[in-house]
Amino acid sequence: MTLTVVGSIAFDAVETPSGSRDRLLGGSAVHFAIAASQFAETRIVGPVGDDFGEGEYAILRHRGVNTDDIEHIPGGTTFFWAGRYHRDINQRDTLQTDLNVFEDFEPKLSEASRAADVLFLANIQPDLQREVREQCERARFVAMDSMNFWIESAHGSLLRTISLADCLLLNDGELEQLTDEPNLTRAARKALELGPRFVIAKQGEYGSALYSRDGYFGLTAYPTADIVEPTGAGDSFAGGLMGFLAAHESEIDEAALRRAMAYGTACASFNVEGFGSERLYELDRAAIDARVAELEQMTRF
Ligand code: AMP
Predict the structure, then answer these.
(1) Which residues are within 8 A (CB) of 34 and not within 5 positions of it... i.e. 6 or more apart?
(2) Quick count: other Cβ atoms within 10 Å of Cβ 148?
(3) Which pLDDT score is estimated for 195?
(4) Other CB atoms closer than 10 Å to residue 94's CB: what's the count?
(5) What is the pLDDT of residues 250-284, one digit of tens each?
(6) Which whole-number Å values give the CA distances from 64 to 15, 38, 93, 137, 289, in the listed order?
(7) What pLDDT score does 4 carry?
(8) Would you say residue 164 has pLDDT above 90?
(9) Ligand 1 center to residue 5 CA distance, Å?
């Protein structure tokens, strides 16, 4: 089964209390695709500028990510994001967001990307997420992410996009902000009323929670002590989750989602153990499966 993702393709600059990097391959769609490609053929859609070179393409292709729908905008500059982490690594400040080539981007998907069974609308302007959703008419499962930046600056558009998704993934704080509801359970219930069948709250080191109209499931994070830099953890979680679902032949129901969350959790745990998604570049599937097996010892899913 094929999987298409649209989202940011970026260069990131990050500062942590123990070190910094000024130019990392990042972006929500990139972190997602590097994790998802462990499980299923993943096609990435998004624009890049002249500064996006062979080295960046090589990282994606090395993981088997299909880059045919990365659109090079001549004369353009790739999306740029800068952030600084606090001593409590769960806290970060955004220092800079330069949309650059995303300002005028109009997604044009190839026939192969439009034919995806499973579609992920990673974090990007919600109008763009919707344009891609509308082009992928045959997708049998559509999930999406967003963030405070879009909740504040494009609220109406974001609500319209959410109404078209089967599953909404947000951080707990973002869900509360979206619904103006300080209690997470109530926030998730309100989000379900916007249209999706499933809502997943990402809770950083505390794990993740799945809400549906008649169910709840909570999963702890994989207990890693080696946190280096967490940018993209949420996207790697989504990549593992959606990759697993794309490879899943039968119906995408609550049981499938619970197991998919374990794969997402394992991918996210590797993501935080290095800068950007570096730790996943050379990872083999057996390492992911081993962490899923450990999680299964702790929780039944
Ligand atoms: P996460 O740590 O899961 O929130 O994902 C961080 C990634 O999202 C970074 O690699 C950034 O390049 C990207 N990002 C940050 N802000 C935005 C934004 N406003 N729109 C799209 N992508 C963003």
Answers:
(1) 59, 60, 63, 65, 236, 239, 277, 280, 281
(2) 14
(3) 98
(4) 12
(5) 999 999 999 999 999 999 999 999 999 999 999 99
(6) 29, 8, 33, 25, 19
(7) 98
(8) yes
(9) 14
Centroid of ligand 1 to alpha carbon of 79 (angstroms): 10
Q: What is the pLDDT of residue 18?
A: 86
Among candidate residues 220, 10, 238, 285, the one with its CA nearest the CA of residue 121: 238
Backbone angles phi, psi at 138, to 5 degrees: -95, 0
pLDDT above 90 for 35: yes
Residue tagged 């609500």 (tokens)? 159
CB-ligand 1 contact for 10 (6 Å cutoff): yes
From 8, 25, 51, 125, the mutation candidate for ligand 1 (largest count of ligand atoms within 8 A of CB) is 8
Residue 18: burial class (beta carbons within 10 Å; 0-12, 13-18, 19+): exposed
Q: What is the pLDDT of residues 108-142, one digit of tens each?
A: 899 999 999 999 999 999 999 999 999 999 999 99
Return the ∠ at Cα 5 (arms to 69 and 240), rounded to 5°.
Answer: 135
